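Fill in residues.
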């Protein structure tokens, strides 16, 4: 994309993306940002921003829109995080882990085979983990993020009830 421009707007969701090629310029949090290739772009819900391709060059980006209740629920499942800590101070920054998580999730949504709810939750938990880490929250010290996944427990129960195959000689 070269000739695109978004006027000032905001989203109800957490908007987390990556500039994949070129540069994306935008105004947010009282400052002008130039998101270079590889940078993460992060907008909290209701955070006003605009955007356009920078440097008169082609640019591409991937963006996820994660509902606020979903994101806060995931973060509070695995850590102790306030709403303020979930609103990262920077709108454009380098973080290879979050970059890979966002790109991986965005690309998995374009596959022929849709993600299972378990796969989707695992990917979202990774992103939530990164936001807690970047926002200065604390992690809950419990195995498997402090909870047992219902689908996993159902699968274990189903497997344990299956007849054992008889050995053939």
């Amino acid at each position: 994309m070269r000739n695109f421009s978004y006027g000032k707007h905001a989203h109800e969701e957490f908007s987390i993306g990556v500039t994949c090629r070129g540069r994306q310029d935008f105004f947010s949090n009282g400052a002008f940002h130039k998101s270079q290739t590889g940078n993460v772009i992060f907008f909290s819900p209701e955070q006003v921003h605009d955007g356009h391709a920078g440097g008169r060059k082609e640019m591409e980006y991937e963006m996820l829109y994660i509902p606020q209740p979903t994101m806060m629920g995931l973060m509070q499942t695995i850590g102790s995080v306030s709403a303020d800590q979930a609103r990262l101070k920077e709108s454009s920054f380098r973080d290879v882990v979050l970059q890979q998580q966002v790109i991986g999730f965005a690309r998995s949504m374009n596959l022929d085979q849709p993600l299972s709810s378990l796969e989707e939750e695992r990917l979202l938990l990774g992103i939530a983990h990164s936001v807690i880490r970047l926002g200065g929250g604390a992690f809950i010290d419990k195995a498997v993020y402090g909870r047992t996944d219902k689908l996993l427990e159902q699968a274990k129960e189903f497997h344990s009830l299956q007849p054992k195959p008889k050995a053939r000689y």
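The beta strands are 5-9, 14-21, 23-28, 31-36, 40-43, 49-53, 60-66, 79-80, 92-93, 138-139.
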